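quick one before i forget lol
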Amino acid sequence: MSFAKSLMDNLIQAGLTGGIASGKTTAAAVLATLGARVVDTDELARQALRPDAPAFEAVVRVFGRQILNADGTVDRARLGDIVFADARQRQRLNDIVHPVVRAAWQGELAELKRAGWRGVVVVVIPLLYEVAAQDRFETVIVVACAEATQRSRLRERGLTAAQADARIRAQMPMTAKMDGADFVVWNESSPAVLEQQIARIWKQLEFLTPAGGNISN
């Protein structure tokens, strides 16, 4: 980990990633309660696909009006079925949405810097390794679990077995993400155990901030 640049900017940038249904959103929420600022790129991607957003028309032009709900919004489940079944289609979507999301995330970081905010900024990027964004961060946290657990959680969300498998296969293997991480949160137990693991990581991040272990929001 190299913290020199962020120390000059008065903040530490941590990338948070993991496999689908591994618990990234829950982990980010815990970090927020501890004092981190969280930028969720999945939420930014949702915003990028709103009818009034810059990526909307391009996505509809590429994938057709079949991906729209009756109210004119993007049916993310239908779009997901298309792109997770075909790597080329997935890349076409990424080519449209990722630049918009990257600009939004960078804009949020720039605003925090302008405001003089000091502390840890956690950027949640589900495909952090897949898009080779890991070098943009001083530290990387991976939230991981067993593939069987991913599949079970996706089924609980209403996906079929085939849909769940397609989404898991579309991502880098969990073990590869874990190998590249500075911190790994193994999310196979209770919420309390998840919180304990994150609290230990937070203690280490606190002492790397410009405030010297005393984060000021």
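fyi Residues 111 and 117 are 9 Å apart (CA to CA).
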